[in-house]
Amino acid sequence: MPAKPSIPAVSTRRASEGHLVVSVGYDNAMSLDIVGPLQVFATANDVRARQGLRTWYQTQLVARSAGAVTTSCGLKLLADHGWRNLELPANSTVLIPGGDGIDEVQHDEELRRWLRDIEPGVMRLGSVCSGALVLARAGLLDGHAATTHWCRIDELRAGHPDIAVDSDRLHTFEAGHAVYGHIFTSAGVTAGIDLALALVEADLGRATALAVARQLVMFMRRPGGQAQFSPLLTAETTHAPRLAMLLDWIPGQIGADLSVERLAEQACLPPRTLARVFHKELGTTPARYVERVRLEAASALLGQRQASVATVARLCGFGHPENLRRSFHKHLAVSPVAFAERFGSG
To answer: Where is the secretion signal located (predicted)?
Structure first.
């Protein structure tokens, strides 16, 4: 049997000096799931070039065969190689993007077999958005934590009971972790950029990752444990008239008493009825919703670096700084002080 052709010699040589990042394209993939992360790695090269340092990342798009793939927005992207004929160096990252085409691609047994074959030999294998469904069907996420786009969470959870599905995080990558530093997933669309920035930080350090974020005009590099979307954005999707006015009222009262009893009084509903409406419309409890609104306000204040942790805790209704610290660790996996240092604009 003839040996499988490898990627061109120049590509292999460059990858051995740094890192090869491969995105697997297919028709009706989400274009941003592909180009968003790849642009992060390209911008990291630009940052290094301005510092007089050599190129670190080589990026490639592959598909079932070389040629054009048409993304869900109609943009055509040119795949350099077919993944079936690709030999990957050990210092490689392979990313599976999401998109409408995942409904068909996740059933591609040949692709799943290829992923299982390359997994032991590559440094990292991950997914963006609904690309997690391919890794799940390949059996590569069994026994591990995983996330995906919020609208695909139920599908992932129902079809793969052996996966610890976490709907409330941006990505599962953890640098240096024996499992999550090797196989990981990310939430929808722009969360792939957050994932890519985390990979850059693991490879080249925090300063380079933050320089890339600034170059891409991102507000900040969000930690992987952050929720997929703002509770305020969630509130705007509700169609419950009895909640709408209450949800508009809460952000202006975050430093005051927002107990369930106080919320029920404001909404003119019994506490138990209020709890049922919250669960039905928002999938959470009133107390948890209030905590997330307070956490978002605290994150914004700490990011501006214009108030101390104690002041932020008081203004946002946490009372004691220790309560704020516990909430940050629970939802963001970072302390308030570390959050301000890493992601603040000052």
So the answer is: none
